[in-house]
């Protein structure tokens, strides 16, 4: 008497778009995973015949190996009993694959029955980080097809000592993110991922860490700051972060290791180590909006996107031309919706957009400075966000990383002139009334021309920054901003960048005081914390910059000062 086992699943991945011509059929039989790529317009009978042939071939190999002719013959006979049913009626062999393999159909292979799931939820990418540290969130890299990440189920297990030589695993958590404790040090991790879309389930994906959980660095520079950000901001407030996280392509150079950061332990400059600290720091701020600079493309794609998605954020990335790093803006999706993006390369816009024709004409009077400006690939990332809690409110979020050279004040002035003109145009043309929040590493100290232009709305041609790179590049001009004076929300701290050879305030969050006011500035780490390991970066801080964090408050329209 044959006993039919509980239903298994067969997963058909045929494309939703009609133009796709292939269909993948996946199922597991006798511990072996089968993946068959077939034409959508092929008769299903050919697929069934192929399954029969493969079964006979495999059973034939088993027969030779075990020398059990009778068992092999019986298995081959069982393998030949392959059919596709729909409502217990056989599907005609002439029916095309595109129609035959659909939800509700059943594939019978001998006594084994498979329920057909068309386009079942599937993790196309599922990876654990290489480095795991106690006290730091572990965020798998996940990409899901035909599913809803919020419906998926995640089970975390850790390796535990047990009797005998077999492996022992104990369940230690659920959810998409797991934070190991000190008790987990020395253990490996496993993660079971069940992809789902509502009640529809796909194949479980099981991951195992390459190495064991290691001890963390102890107290980090941001731990005290997190005490001020344990709760999310409540409307009408929102929390904003601006942070240069130090690109890996710069941290790993010989210049960085031997000259810029010789005081930093080499392992603390490794990306696998730093990304643990970055994830924990960003998560702990409970921000609504994060503007990051020096984000490696690989870091955004392989680490930050999945982690921030798990923390409740959507994000956009803008690569810096000719580089492998760029700008990233993340926004809490329960709070904001991205309406549009208006990114640009500042030098390209200067040369091609008539908005900047006056500035270009003035700059052209000095060919040396003009050439220097046009050699730069500096980008401006611009995102228009709608506040979902008050849909009539919107933000124009700008994020940039200006030219770095100490003598490049004149270049930065031109870059800022282009940026402000572009931002004024975007707001007036796309989102009138939007509040500007301008974040970034401006590579400019508070007395600089860039900061004066932002805070005074104009800059005279007599400013010393026009001579920053010497008389050969002197091109004095008056600059005007389309915005009333902006406010540096975090003020002018003594420093936001602290390395062995320099310390100074280079990073800013500028706002329009007629739209928003500052509710709270999260204190920066103390000087003792910053210098515990001499300077930044260090084993307790992942970047040479310090994040700026503040809570902003929407002004009621009636409270806005008149212009």
UniProtKB/TrEMBL annotation:
<comment type="similarity">
    <text>Belongs to the CCR4/nocturin family.</text>
</comment>
<dbReference type="InterPro" id="IPR036691">
    <property type="entry name" value="Endo/exonu/phosph_ase_sf"/>
</dbReference>
<keyword id="KW-0507">mRNA processing</keyword>
<dbReference type="GO" id="GO:0004535">
    <property type="term" value="F:poly(A)-specific ribonuclease activity"/>
</dbReference>
<dbReference type="GO" id="GO:0005759">
    <property type="term" value="C:mitochondrial matrix"/>
</dbReference>
<keyword id="KW-0460">Magnesium</keyword>
<dbReference type="InterPro" id="IPR048821">
    <property type="entry name" value="PDE12-like_N"/>
</dbReference>
<dbReference type="GO" id="GO:0046872">
    <property type="term" value="F:metal ion binding"/>
</dbReference>
<feature type="domain" description="Endonuclease/exonuclease/phosphatase">
    <location>
        <begin position="242"/>
        <end position="545"/>
    </location>
</feature>
<protein>
    <recommendedName>
        <fullName>2',5'-phosphodiesterase 12</fullName>
    </recommendedName>
</protein>
<keyword id="KW-0378">Hydrolase</keyword>
<dbReference type="GO" id="GO:0000288">
    <property type="term" value="P:nuclear-transcribed mRNA catabolic process, deadenylation-dependent decay"/>
</dbReference>
<dbReference type="InterPro" id="IPR005135">
    <property type="entry name" value="Endo/exonuclease/phosphatase"/>
</dbReference>
<keyword id="KW-0479">Metal-binding</keyword>
<keyword id="KW-0496">Mitochondrion</keyword>
<dbReference type="InterPro" id="IPR050410">
    <property type="entry name" value="CCR4/nocturin_mRNA_transcr"/>
</dbReference>
<keyword id="KW-0809">Transit peptide</keyword>
<keyword id="KW-0597">Phosphoprotein</keyword>
<keyword id="KW-0540">Nuclease</keyword>
<dbReference type="Pfam" id="PF03372">
    <property type="entry name" value="Exo_endo_phos"/>
</dbReference>
<keyword id="KW-0269">Exonuclease</keyword>
<dbReference type="Pfam" id="PF21171">
    <property type="entry name" value="PDE12-like_N"/>
</dbReference>
<dbReference type="GO" id="GO:0006397">
    <property type="term" value="P:mRNA processing"/>
</dbReference>
<feature type="domain" description="2',5'-phosphodiesterase 12-like N-terminal">
    <location>
        <begin position="121"/>
        <end position="214"/>
    </location>
</feature>
